[in-house]
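Box 3.1 A note on notation
Throughout this textbook, protein chains are presented in two layers. The first layer is the amino acid sequence; the second is a token string describing backbone geometry. Keep the layers aligned when reading.
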Amino acid sequence: MGRVAGNYGVRGWIRVAPYSAEAGALGAHAKWWIGDVTYSVEASRVHSGNLLAKLEGIETREQALALKGSIVRLPRAALAEPEAGQYYWADLVGLEVVNAQGSVLGVVQGLFSNGAHDVMELAGDKSTRLVPFVPAVVRKVDLEGRRIEVEWGAEW
């Protein structure tokens, strides 16, 4: 759902960079998983595109800084079903990516946002490749068939 980008102030608040455009959506949940620990969210608010949060048990700047770089997760049951044409990144990991010519480009190892759009990281036979996850490239996502069809050259 996001990544702890750092601390905010000296009283244990953290700054979270959300993976979605809706920074406040993460703040609506009362419990977060960070690493192997479940934290109760005491307070949160959106600030400059990030989410600021006060977690139970995190009282100092040093404790907040210790979480920097950690991934913020929610239980799947807490998430709404995505709308048609939208996907949770976790659902795409492990899917085979095939181009229009039938060449297997690789398997989705992860996704990230580069600021302009989302990007799939694919692990292939010989190398890793990056493919934009945008409508002009992604033609079909078949979650049941565990396959993504793209308009992307095998040699690109």
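The helical segments are 23-27, 61-66, 89-92. The mean pLDDT is 91.
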